[in-house]
UniProtKB/TrEMBL annotation:
Pfam families: MIB_HERC2 (PF06701). The lineage of its organism: Eukaryota, Metazoa, Chordata, Craniata, Vertebrata. Keywords: Membrane, Transmembrane, Transmembrane helix. InterPro entries: Mib_Herc2 (IPR010606), Mib_Herc2_sf (IPR037252). This is MIB/HERC2 domain-containing protein. Residues 1-80 form the MIB/HERC2 domain. GO terms for cellular component: cytoplasm. It comes from the Eukaryota.
Amino acid sequence: MEPDPQASMQVGMRVVRGVDWKWGSQDSGEGNVGTVVEIGRTGSPTTPDKTVVVQWDQGNRTNYRTGFQGAYDLLLYDNAQIGERGVGTALAQLLAPSALFLLAFLLFPALNRTFALILLKQSPDRIQGMK
């Protein structure tokens, strides 16, 4: 089963032009950002299913394909709240120091005793068995 790109589109999300973009400078140029203001629905004459309406920061407002006709005009931009970090970023920040420590611990056995001293804040006499 393939993921549904539109399933993640919600009003308020920020977007940029995507892989199937063919609308010239409606977004006022590559790299400009817009906001999803309406999600398409079955039976709508103006915003059909698998489309969204975007209000571009530069002024234009129109609808774009998010699976309609098999095309995807938009990509999601970073939608995290200001000051918040995504789960992936937070997880990476938690794991990165631990992973580096483990790698150093395994690759450099001579440093094991030094790491233990630093981490455990023990005197060298108490860690004699680690040689």
